[in-house]
Amino acid sequence: MEICFILVEPATPENVGAAARALKTMGFASLRLVNPCDYLSPPARWLAHASSDILENATVFHSLEEALHDIDFKIGTTAKKRSVKNDYFPLPDLPDFLTRKKSSLQKTAVVFGREESGLTNEELKLCDLVTTVPLQTSYPSLNLAQAVMLYCYELSKLNYITTEKANKNEQGFSALKEKIKTVLHDTGFKENTNIYPRFFERLNFLGEDDIHLLHSFCNKYLQNKK
Questions:
Q1: What is the pTM of this model?
Q2: Which of 138, 158, 186, 195 is the most exposed place for a label (fewest CB within 10 A)?
Q3: What is the CA radius of gyration of the chain?
């Protein structure tokens, strides 16, 4: 599974540089930036230290939706609970959560918001899962680079877990979501109903075996539909 890290409209070059250093230190290389500050400026390179290659190879996009165009599973981050999602997942449990999906995922992205305001509700809606860092203090605020480092550290544990090669065919997670959309539409669950997004929110919590089971059901349904 390939994991990339996306920073949405980072305003401080130093934060981008420190984030790049966090990626390289923990064995990651893919950084995507949405409408960033001058991420190649000297302050960014100073904080990146020996990780300037991460900055130089970063891909820049004009919107988060563009940055997510080829991502199978999208993980949003937030410091506080929002009404846009019902389920919020703690960071320490994320490696095991992703491991259970095994070969159903090819590319996963972790999305970080702006230093001052984080991700908007609309941006969080683009994510399959919303995660948060459990903190002891009542002032749950982490610097952007600190948050990136924590996620890199936790997700680096995936490097020590043997998983199967990502599934590139019709049994993958992205393909399942498209099939579920068809089934829901055919059975009367429209996009503008409250229950429609809830189906997909719970779908994101399935492990590989259940994903394959739902594929079998959807395939049978679609065959009978013809």
A1: 0.76
A2: 138
A3: 18
